[in-house]
Amino acid sequence: MTMLAAVAVTASFAQGNPKIAKEIKATKDFVAGKEVLKQQFETLTDEQKGQAYAELYKLALPAAQKSAQALEENKTAEVDYKAIANAVEMAAMCDKFNAKNAKEANIEMMNYRPQLVNAANQTSDLDDKLLYSLTYINSANPKSLEGVVKGEDPYVALSSFFACVSYYQKQDFKNAAKFAKAALPDERVTDNAEQIYLSCIGRDLNTKQDTVNYINALKDLNADKYFQQICLLNYYIGEKDEVNSLINKAITENKNTKVAYLVRGTMLSEEKKFDEAIEDYKKVVEADPEFVSGWEALAVCYTNKAAEIEINHADKNGRVLGENLVNFKAALDGAVAAYEKVRELDPNHEKVYNWPMQLRSLYTRLGQTAKAQEISKLLGE
Q1: Beta bridge partners of 146
Q2: Conformational region of residue 151, where left means phi above 0, alpha means psi within -120 to 50, and beta covers everything else
Q3: Taking CA 43 as the corner, what is the angle to CA 37 and CA 45, rounded to the nearest 5 degrees?
């Protein structure tokens, strides 16, 4: 008998509580009503959940209306954005579970929802920023308003940006990347969202496949904009043929040629093919004579060539002689000329902070003491 009673109770429990809406209504309080639903949620049918959310919406609405009124009257101190978020969320849940009031609730919330975007933008509290932005996102394009609301929701991408900022600062990089990508279509935040997205997905490139995935993400974003990174990453994972193909194509199509020569020069320089690298760097600065990074790359390459000559051809007393000495001094002269161009373009060493030290060192090695001292005075030494 006891066993049969237990079975009967279990069966009744599984069918849910048909009086859940009345129980929530009886609380006369949104927080208390939400707790009632929480405790019974898993036992309810979808229809009962819809009835429950309809009652919760009614309980949430007065506080939301009060805050909306305060906003209209510019009484910002009386605004409770969380109350607005509660009403918007309950309207969305009514929609999800096909409550009878879903259409009416979501129509009413159309004027409330944009306030959540403003709230997400204004607050510095990360949890509140997430609450407002996610509530806005999750309440977008309700099915109960099909035919009433047309087109994409205008602020979902912007709200996604606020969510990605919150997740990023919370160091939840997976969600930060997800919402940063969703924010990209909004031109107001595209650049910042893109940088957060790349920062997140580029944090742990532990395997070759990780890097390949990152390269593909760069291509999807903007292959031309990230041409240099795409090439160099392919080079570092050993895909040299792919890099050469990308560079040759860029040069042939006269597209990204400056960057193509810069990348190839970097590759050749790392392989200690300094003369070939120098020729590529010269093409870079010929294409853009005011490209400070190009002149710096050329200067560094000449300096590295001189160091390589000294390492490989100095005698036991550390002297470089004969033809090697000629080539050594020519490399130093080339480095000086390139750094002087950097000096001309970046006199306050804001872009290339160390050019004064490099240039002074080169003048010292060439025995041009007066010019080295001039650089020291420039540095206040």
Answers
A1: 149
A2: left
A3: 90
Tokens of 118: 């403003």
pLDDT for 5 equals 39
Determine contact, residues 319/297, Cβ cutoff 8 Å: no
* Tokens describing residue 26: 């009886």
Per DSSP, what are the bridge partners of residue 51?
A: none
Say how far apart CA 352 and CA 358 lie, in whole Å: 10
For 245-295, write each residue's pLDDT tens digit: 999 999 999 888 999 999 999 999 999 999 999 999 999 999 999 999 999
Question: Which pair of structure tokens corresponds to residue 31?
Answer: 């927080």
Instruction: State the amino acid at position 172 in one-letter form.
Output: D
* Cβ-Cβ contacts under 8 Å for 164 (sequence gap 6 or more): 175, 176, 177, 178, 179, 180, 182, 183, 193, 196, 197
Tokens of 124: 């510095």
What does residue 18 show for φ and ψ, rounded to 5 degrees? Answer: -65, -10
Helix ranges (H only) for the chain are 2-14, 20-27, 30-40, 46-72, 81-96, 102-109, 113-122, 126-138, 156-169, 173-183, 190-201, 208-222, 227-236, 240-252, 257-270, 274-287, 292-313, 322-345, 355-365, 369-378
Q: What are phi and psi of 97, to 5 degrees?
A: -105, 20
The answer to whether the beta carbons of residues 242 and 212 sit under 8 Å apart is no
**Three-state secondary structure call for residue 110:** coil
Percent of the chain with pLDDT over 70: 96
* Whole-number Å distance between alpha carbons of 377 and 337: 20
Token pair for 231: 């090439």
Give residue-wise pLDDT tens across range 184-222.
999 999 999 999 999 999 998 999 999 999 999 999 999
Q: How far apart are CA 233 and CA 267, in angstroms?
A: 11
Give the residue carrying structure tokens 């003491």: 369
Residue type at 126? L
83 pLDDT more than 80: yes
Query: Mean pLDDT over all residues of the chain?
Result: 93
18 Cβ contact partners less than 8 Å away, ≥ 6 residues apart: 48
